[in-house]
């Protein structure tokens, strides 16, 4: 089917303004952080304007995906998915630079064609975090924060990118920040939709491909606010440099989730909750779904 065939005029325009009114877990720093750091230390960090101030967005992209080979180059309403992700990332106000990190020349050539900066990385990178780290080492400029922007989220909101950057800047005890949104009932048992639970201070407790928390009835509780991990994450660059050297952990290997390697090694991860309709591309059949969604909302 021609993807443009289901694009019809709609009364909706652009993305919902409600997306910008995020609900934040711990973005505003509370008394607990001030006590932990000491009031003077915290005020110095927050007012100096120098704490984690230099920020780069990196979009890791590889061709050889086991579930969807060539995924970054798939056309979404006439544009490669990687281009749509890059264009959204460029709209974020907290990013000083946006680059694509890839191990594939076809992806690199495509990205250079629409004006993106490209860093070539090795095929040996095990995940996006390691690819971000390798790209960071090859850059001439130095940065304090790296945002790992998932290339398969072509509708990522710039406000979400800015939100996780600000969350990490406001939480000196964390080395990592990420975002979650409300989990829809149909995604409850989808292993490709990663779930997350956080503590009362907005720090991650656990991530899983299974439904968490899991109750005795083994059914979805319609009253519980389950959370879906959006995948986008930011790191303190000092931590990112040591991340590849950290030993893999049993939970990480069992769930195949790199966030668990961070948590199981004892590091803290800040989480914000946002109002965002997640539309990641995990399989070829997801392309038509996202094209239909975009046309219904005049996002093409």
UniProtKB/TrEMBL annotation:
Its main location: membrane. It catalyses: 3-deoxy-alpha-D-manno-oct-2-ulosonate + CTP = CMP-3-deoxy-beta-D-manno-octulosonate + diphosphate. Gene3D superfamilies: Spore Coat Polysaccharide Biosynthesis Protein SpsA, Chain A (3.90.550.10). SUPFAM superfamilies: Nucleotide-diphospho-sugar transferases (SSF53448). The keyword Transmembrane helix applies. Pathway: Nucleotide-sugar biosynthesis; CMP-3-deoxy-D-manno-octulosonate biosynthesis; CMP-3-deoxy-D-manno-octulosonate from 3-deoxy-D-manno-octulosonate and CTP: step 1/1. The chain crosses the membrane at residues 22-45. Its EC number is 2.7.7.38. It comes from the Eukaryota. GO terms for cellular component: cytosol; membrane. GO terms for biological process: carbohydrate derivative biosynthetic process; small molecule metabolic process. The keyword Disulfide bond does not apply. InterPro entries: Cytidylyl_trans (IPR003329), KdsB (IPR004528), Nucleotide-diphossugar_trans (IPR029044). It is found in: Membrane. It is an enzyme of class 2 (transferase). Keywords: Membrane, Nucleotidyltransferase, Transferase, Transmembrane, Transmembrane helix. GO terms for molecular function: 3-deoxy-manno-octulosonate cytidylyltransferase activity. Belongs to the KdsB family. This is 3-deoxy-manno-octulosonate cytidylyltransferase. The lineage of its organism: Eukaryota, Viridiplantae, Streptophyta, Embryophyta, Tracheophyta.
């Amino acid at each position: 089917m021609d993807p443009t065939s289901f694009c019809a005029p709609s009364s909706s325009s652009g993305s919902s303004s409600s997306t910008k009114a995020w609900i934040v877990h711990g973005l505003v720093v509370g008394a607990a952080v001030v006590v932990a750091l000491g009031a003077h230390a915290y005020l110095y960090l927050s007012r100096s304007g120098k704490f984690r101030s230099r920020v780069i967005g990196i979009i890791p992209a590889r061709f050889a995906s086991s579930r969807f080979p060539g995924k970054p180059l798939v056309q979404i309403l006439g544009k490669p998915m990687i281009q749509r992700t890059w264009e959204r990332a460029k709209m974020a106000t907290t990013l000083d630079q946006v680059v694509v990190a890839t191990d594939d020349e076809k992806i690199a050539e495509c990205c250079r064609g629409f004006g993106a900066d490209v860093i070539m990385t090795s095929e040996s990178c095990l995940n996006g975090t390691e690819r971000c780290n390798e790209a960071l080492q090859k850059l001439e400029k130095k940065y304090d924060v790296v945002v790992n922007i998932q290339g398969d989220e072509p509708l990522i909101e710039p406000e979400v990118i800015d939100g996780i950057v600000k969350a990490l800047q406001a939480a000196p005890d964390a080395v990592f920040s990420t975002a979650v949104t409300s989990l829809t009932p149909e995604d409850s048992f989808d292993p490709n939709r990663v779930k997350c639970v956080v503590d009362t201070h907005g720090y991650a407790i656990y991530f899983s491909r299974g439904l968490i928390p899991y109750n005795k009835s083994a059914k979805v509780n319609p009253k519980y606010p389950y959370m879906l991990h959006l995948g986008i994450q930011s790191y303190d660059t000092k931590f990112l440099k040591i991340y590849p050297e950290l030993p893999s952990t049993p939970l990480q290997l069992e769930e195949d989730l790199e966030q668990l390697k961070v948590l199981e090694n004892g590091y803290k991860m800040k989480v914000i909750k946002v109002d965002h309709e997640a539309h990641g591309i995990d399989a070829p059949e997801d392309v038509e779904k996202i094209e239909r969604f975009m046309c219904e909302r005049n996002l093409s």
